[in-house]
Amino acid sequence: MLWGLIGYMIFLTIQGPGLSDPRISIPLVGLSILWFLALSNHMNYFEVSDEHFIVRNHYFIWKKHFYRIDNIREIVFETQPNAPIGLRLIARDFRSTLYAAGTLKDSQWLSLMKNLQEKGVAVRNECVALS
């Protein structure tokens, strides 16, 4: 879905002069950019090192969020209505941040939960089925 509209626009551009009219091309380009930004915010993934928990994004590769493991109070796997599973990180000062991760499978969530628990982080699973 993320690349569908963009691919369609590229196809129309290659096929002929369909997008040469600005009344057509500008709204389609704007819609494509909005669509890309909206969906790419759900493409986070997570890494765990000895001292840090790292949040990265598949499409915004320059964005990285680092959290010290010892500064994490709790991590919650949760879901919002009509949204993918997300990870809510609650810091020791009770600041909370939600990262949606629509590309992760249940087995990856469970592996992440196990890895975090081995590091001493409290993990609350509210939505991933235990297998």
Write the layout of secondary structure elements.
Blueprint lengths: L3 H12 L6 H19 L3 E5 L3 E6 L6 E5 L3 E8 L5 E7 L4 E5 L5 H13 L3 E4 L6
Parallel strand pairs: 4-7
Antiparallel strand pairs: 1-2, 2-3, 4-5, 5-6
Share of helix among residues? 25-40%
Shape category: elongated
- The CATH topology assignment of the largest domain is PH-domain like
Any idea what the CATH superfamily of the largest domain is called?
Pleckstrin-homology domain (PH domain)/Phosphotyrosine-binding domain (PTB)
**Total separate domains:** 2
CATH architecture of the largest domain: Roll
Determine the number of helices (DSSP H or I, runs of at least 4 residues). Answer: 3
Please state the CA-atom Rg, rounded to the nearest Å. 19 Å
Main sheet, how many strands, which sense, barrel? 4 strands, mixed
In CATH's first tier, which class of the largest domain applies?
Answer: Mainly Beta
Computed structural class: alpha+beta
Give the rounded overall mean pLDDT: 87
Instruction: Please write the string of helix (H) and strand (E) elements.
Output: HHEEEEEEHE
